[in-house]
Amino acid sequence: MSESPPSVDEKVRATGQGRAPVAPAGLLTRLGEVPLLGLVAALVLLAVVGLVTVPDTFATTSNMVSILSLAATIGVITVGMTFVIIGGGIDLSVGALMALASVWATTLATQAYGPFVMIVCAVLVGTGAGLVNGLLISYGRMVPFIATLAMLVAARGLAQRMSNRRTQLVAQGNEAIVGLSTTRVLGIPLLVYIFAVVVVLGWVLLNRTTFGRRTYAVGGNPEAARLAGIDVRRHTVALYALSGLCCGIAAVLIMARTTTGSSTHGDLYELDAIAAVIIGGTLLTGGRGSIVGSILGLLIFTVITNLFILNGLNTSDQLVAKGLIIVVAVLLQRRSLRTAT
Amino acid sequence: MSDAIPLLVMRGIVKQFPGVRALDGVDLEVLPGEVHCLLGQNGAGKSTLIKTLAGAHQPDEGTITFGGEEVRLSSPIAAIKLGISTIYQELDLVDGLSVAENVFLGHEPARLGFVSRAAAARATREVLSRLGHGEIRPSTEVGRLSPAAKQVVSMARALSHDTRLIVMDEPSAALAHDEVGNLFRIIRELTAQGVAVIYISHRLEEIREIGDRVTVLKDGRTVAVGLPAKDTPTSEVISLMTGRNVEYLFPDRPAAGVRQDRAEVLRVENLSVPGRVEDVSFSVRAGEIVGLAGLVGSGRSEIIEAVYGARRFSGTVTLEGRSTGRGGTGTAVRMGMGLAPEERKAQALLLDQSVSRNISLASLGRYSRLGWMDRRREAADARAMVEALDIRPSDPERPVKTLSGGNQQKAVLARWLLNDRRLLLLDEPTRGVDVGARAELYALVRRLADDGIGVLLVSSEVPEVLGLADRVLVIREGRIVREAVAGELDEHAVLDMIMEGSPV
Questions:
Q1: How many Cβ atoms sit within 10 Å of the Cβ of residue A258?
Q2: Which of B375, B395, B401 shows the shortest C-beta gap to A9?
């Protein structure tokens, strides 16, 4: 005899709606990938729109390369953001951290040591700031939203101070960094390869390692994770440090693309990254999501931007379209979630 | 009093939940101005009954008459409008709002949509002084009040409606001793004004002191109506509450008992958790099942959490001779402990994820080299566990949320059986588990003990502790009041101890 009132599950089952179909093994696990099919379909649809409206310019190699180059910087950040959000958090500071890392790496003092040290500097600054985020959240018990909001403001301020609000050029002799954007292998710039490598490493880390498992556990049910012996706080610190690391790598890519370091780099990148993650089917409450989804979400965004530019349309309309897409994507996902469980 | 017209009459109330008949024909009759006590073990149906009365549940059968008219309590608001207020065990106050705002939450005195703060404050002051607590200021934030003061605010809220019946669910659980006296004074004043009170408590001494009549529930039925609270013998009350319709099947204990020469797995010395547990010492031997019997709030769950490192404590906990120190749950797991927590869904499971991933959660290190998961070995072991424990449906890739309670609990146990455990801590292992699956779980726990694992078991259901454990520790108000071999105790005696704390 149990006195406890029936759980939601039981109620749903009682009304007969939520009865899970008895699916063969494997199919249920693959159900998680159904939203991904939807994203691919959306991407195909956008491509068709491109082929119809701007047939001469859309389907060219140079346009594809420019889409990928554009996506690369935010893409790297999106990988880190996916980890943080699956782990039950949020990182608002990503754009600002990228700006700070780009400024720090392009100061005269850093540039004196050459391109390799500049890269190391950018990565360390990003990781270090991410570490601070993680420590504030885990051990300072701050809400992620607030801790990373504070970091956003502070990192931008620090970047402005270091650069005196001036755009810092990558100096002569350090053009090797710019080479990441200008050097092409098989017609594709190096920075796109870097983006691809980060995505693959991120996927492996999330899907094939204990770190990934713990990320899902910590985001899905932190109390269960703790009682299973997982050090939830330490893991949370690692997640934000990882996001910071991604910002550092993104800083290198933006330096390569723009040949500058600037406190204005990456403005509102945090919103694009979060939007891409959400469109990709990752729950903001944590515990569920995928890297592939996030990248598809990001590509959808980038292709839309591209289509608007190629068609000579207003950028304001483009923002409205993006907003609509976020809403539609979330509504569709909620439906597929309901049918899947 | 017997010729008074009853304020509330409930007849033949039935409430069916999927798989459980929570109420199976309950009768209740409450007179105006009386304190009517509701008694029954956990699972007897008290909570369901008061939720029905509060309009939160709709009964499937039966009639409710209030103030001489048959009524339907279709929603909490309908109940409040009729004059039935419920004060739940977990006080439902908003900490961030003021006392006055809480008292008038949902029915603020307003003019043209603007809340009249002055009127609310005045009315609140009035109600509070009626309760003898004029010192609580209406503008104080509720979060800053003591538990006792919060209770007064809850009562003020109940009285701010035109209330004729107040239901109190274990109101004394959160109160210190002298605060209980004050609660009783308030109750007496209310009843003197003609308000009726339904009072739920496990503490018989309180029922003696404040109650007029007692109704006893067992297994969703009324087994005694309107007993005089003051002079019904304790033994009679407990007899009514005990004795089950459902007989559980418990596995046999080892014939010779657990041999005293077996090694101690767990030793707990002078364990204290401030305000919850006081200076508790005990041990568990290899192959032994030790049961902790006590009421909710007696400190039994806190003992388990402290042993597991999930809660701060003073004293020492040693596992196989090594102190656990203050390393937290990570250390406890590394040293060989496993916990099946009280709230399975909230504290143990990743509901969206597969059975397999839930099973391997605490042994990820075993399936990885340099962090790289060996997924084939993980899947193979999960499959073996699903078969060994007969988890149904026997598909390790199913999301764990699609399993029944009993199979979910098996998945939690499987998590710990994957890696050599020395000690298992089981907190209410059969909550929400149906009768058939219980027998299976009992047999499983016994089998684990036979394999040499020490087991520490907590349960609200006394028969479960007595049936499954080798040795029983009776806990009351954070202390061990009796330690005995399970065979030496009976349900009656244990209930007597945990409810009344009478000298042993």
A1: 17
A2: B401
pLDDT tens-digit map of A87-96: 999 999 999 9
**DSSP SS3 for B164:** coil
Of residues A333 and A9, the one with the higher pLDDT is A333
Q: Which residues are bridge partners to B165 per DSSP?
A: B84, B196
d(CA A288, CA A282): 6
In tens, the pLDDT along B289-333 reads 999 998 777 888 899 999 999 988 999 999 998 988 877 899 999
User: What is the spatial distance between Cα B388 and Cα B286, in angstroms, rounded to a whole number?
Assistant: 22
Cβ-Cβ contacts under 8 Å, A86 against chain B = none
> pLDDT tens for residues A239-249?
999 999 999 99
Side chain identity at residue B216, one-letter code? V
CA distance B190 to chain A (A): 30
CA neighbours within 13 Å on the CB side: how many for A180? 26
| Whether the Cβ atoms of residue A122 and residue A251 lie closer than 8 Å to each other | yes
HSE-CB of B426 using CA atoms within 13 angstroms: 34
CA distance A243 to A241: 5
Cα atoms in the Cβ-side hemisphere of radius 13 Å centred on B67: 12
Per-residue pLDDT reduced to its tens digit, B441-478: 899 999 999 989 999 999 888 888 988 999 999 998 88
**Residue B412: which residues within 8 A CB-CB, separation 6 or more?**
B340, B344, B348, B349, B358
Distance from CA of B217 to the nearest CA of A (A): 12
Cβ–Cβ of B354/A216 closer than 8 Å? no
Average pLDDT in the B139-157 region? 85
From the list B329, B350, B354, the residue facing A229 with the nearest CB is B329
Of B27, B83, B82, B78, residue with least CA distance to B56 = B78
pLDDT of residue A41: 87
Residue B280 pairs in a beta bridge with B271
- How many contacts does A have with B, using Cβ atoms within 8 A? 127
- Among chain A residues, CA nearest to B415: A228
pLDDT, tens digit, 9 for 90 and up, residues A148-160: 999 999 999 999 9
Residues B403, B358: Cα–Cα separation, whole Å: 12
pLDDT of residue B419 exceeding 60? yes
Tokens 């007897």 locate to B44
- The tens digit of pLDDT for each residue in B108-131 reads 777 677 777 888 888 899 888 877
What gap in Å lies between CA A278 and CA A270, rounded to an integer? Answer: 12
> Which stretch of A260-269, B72-81, B160-169, B201-210 has the lowest confidence by average pLDDT?
B201-210
Beta-bridged to residue A173, according to DSSP, are: none
Asked whether the beta carbons of residue B361 and residue A3 sit closer than 8 angstroms, the reply is: no
Two structure tokens written together for B393: 């449906």
Q: Grade residue B221 by pLDDT with cuts at 50, 70 and 90.
A: confident
- List the one residue out of A119, A154, A118 whose CA is nearest residue A133: A154
Q: Which residue of A has its CA nearest to B395?
A: A25
Distance, in angstroms, between A127 CA and closest chain B CA?
21
Cβ <8 Å between B402 and A20: yes
| CA distance to partner chain B, nearest, from residue A301 (Å) | 28
Burial class (CB in 10 A: 0-12, 13-18, 19+), A239: buried
